[in-house]
Amino acid sequence: VVRRVLDDEMLEQLEELLISTDMGVDTALRVTANMAEGRFGKRLSVEEIKRLLAAEVARIMDPIAKPLPLYSKTPQVVLVVGVNGSGKTTTIGKLASQFKAAGKNVVIAAGDTFRAAAVEQLQVWGERAGVPVLTAAQGSDPASLAFDAMGQAERDGADLLLIDTAGRLQNRGDLMEELAKIVRVIRKKDPSAPHNTLLVLDATTGQNALNQVKVFQEISDVSGLVMTKLDGTAKGGVLVALADKFGLPIHAIGVGEQIDDLQPFDPQEFADALMGLDPQ
Amino acid sequence: MFENLSERLSGVFDRLTKQGALSEEDVKTALREVRVALLEADVSLPVARDFVKAVQDKATGQAVTKSITPGQQVVKIVHDTLIDVLRGEGEPGSLKIDNAPAPILMVGLQGSGKTTTTAKLAKRLKDRDGKRVLMASLDVNRPAAMEQLAILGVQIGVDTLPIVKGENPVQIAKRAKTQAAMGGYDVYMLDTAGRLSIDEELMQQVEAVRDVSNPRETLLVVDGLTGQDAVQTAENFNDRIGISGVVLTRMDGDGRGGAALSMRAVTGKPIKFVGLGEKMDALETFEPERIAGRILGM
Ligand SMILES: Nc1nc2c(ncn2[C@@H]2O[C@H](COP(=O)(O)OP(=O)(O)OP(=O)(O)O)[C@@H](O)[C@H]2O)c(=O)[nH]1
Ligand SMILES: Nc1nc2c(ncn2[C@@H]2O[C@H](COP(=O)(O)OP(=O)(O)OP(=O)(O)O)[C@@H](O)[C@H]2O)c(=O)[nH]1
Ligand SMILES: [K+]
Ligand SMILES: [Mg+2]
Ligand SMILES: [Mg+2]
After folding, report:
1. From B121, B137, B248, B249, mutation site for ligand 2 pocket: most ligand atoms within 8 A of C-beta
2. C-beta of residue B16 within 8 angstroms of C-beta of residue B70
3. pTM of the predicted model as reported, rounded to 2 decimal places
4. How many beta-carbon pairs below 8 A join chains A and B?
5. CB neighbours (10 Å) of residue B276?
6. Which ipTM did the prediction report?
7. How far, CA to CA in Å, does A143 sit from each of A59, A140, A182, A221?
């Protein structure tokens, strides 16, 4: 095995490796610096260095790898938010299927009353998961739908109500106000709801994910993250920067378009993939 | 959340300007800032590296004129170089749609905005160019994808190919071609399912679609918020399918749009349009000056 001295040039290359995962410059510098501490000038193999970096990343991510918390309160209201096309609707289908399989009584509300065929798309997912989907006409008020759905879920004795929302960019004030209203109206019905607000992030997204988390958290009190599309070439390194800055739990990752393609977030696996290491 | 490039550079250049002449060390310091700013604007690493190199070569050879400070001069070189790279050949927004019916193939990753952009472009071709357009969804994967395009078709007054369940994408493409020819359409647009560039089966499928339809334009639809992965997407789609242009969506967001530079640098193909919203008229022709300013935060 070839060993190289851990010097400045080497550190710069490692920083670049991390930057090319979307980790961002700041976090990449910090992660490499932490790894190098006490090792500068030592001779290390590429594999050893990557393992050390992966360990450093896993250490950062460990505390935030948590499954979606379940509460005794029923119906537990899970609001799913995020920018356009990130994978909200698909993730709801996958979650519904998992909770159903775990013996929960699940109901979905099709809160995207804007996008063409958003309701039809969710209805297909509801069928696949074997879960009822509550709908309203296109163009109707998503907040009223959420309110009605809560009443319906209560009457049906549902354990979980998953509410889909339309995709919205976080810099669109009008659409963010619409989201704030959805939350307000949900709280009118149950002050403790939504019990979880999931922000769905697309792994191909670059540094804008930081703004997404910041603004969605301000507006809708995000309680956890799901990152989708990690089955692609994107590494999702921005999650490390997010862990650094926000510390929000990561509940699950999307690894495909099929109903079972939702996995728990595993920090070591994620870190290994980030560094291009074979799973241990 | 980030310091933009003008802020970064103004910090550096303020210092440099006061020194009068621009030493090689000064250029290096400044370009380090440029590189970081490009990376924070989501320009892919290899592209940022090459870009900085190009700027360095230009800056090093240049005499500093009296009318402009050395700092301003470097900013100008960075800005001009960026616009040069971003500007594609040909008239922005023009599409090869002679020889009716002209097929346009839309490809890209999942959720990038293909279906929405297909409808926006169809509307533009109908409204501005007076073209008769037929849209067909070849997406047999995503739930209600065909219904989505059909609904958009009704909204914008553009015909869609009738949905026949059970057909594969190649069969649908052939039917679209026949219908477009028989129906006297000028253009037919083929909206495809989202696919990962490493999904061998789906990449082969879209190659087969390309081979039966022989598109006049093959547009890669890319999320403007894309980060470092832009290089992979651009390379793989271009190598496998051979794209003729790029559409950048979600440029109404507050992303810095570095993917634009990555797309141009990797494919060499023009960015034809940018998507600026979910509404059917939120599509504009690509303007390199605007995106350059945005990437640099100027
Ligand atoms: N490869 C892959 N594709 C995914 C994953 N999650 C979702 N997708 C795909 O991404 C596309 C968009 O997913 P949606 O669930 O419609 O996203 P959305 O956030 O609901 O979109 P809008 O409602 O339009 O904002 C679809 O083609 C999905 O099949 C994933 O984990 N991996
Ligand atoms: N804000 C904004 N949203 C956009 C833009 N273009 C598309 N969208 C939204 O992005 C989401 C995904 O768009 P689609 O057109 O369904 O994407 P797609 O590539 O066809 O998705 P798949 O078929 O699942 O791969 C939808 O919510 C669209 O309304 C844009 O330019 N700006
Ligand atoms: K991946
Ligand atoms: Mg959706
Ligand atoms: Mg589509």
Report:
1. B249
2. yes
3. 0.97
4. 139
5. 18
6. 0.97
7. 40, 9, 4, 16
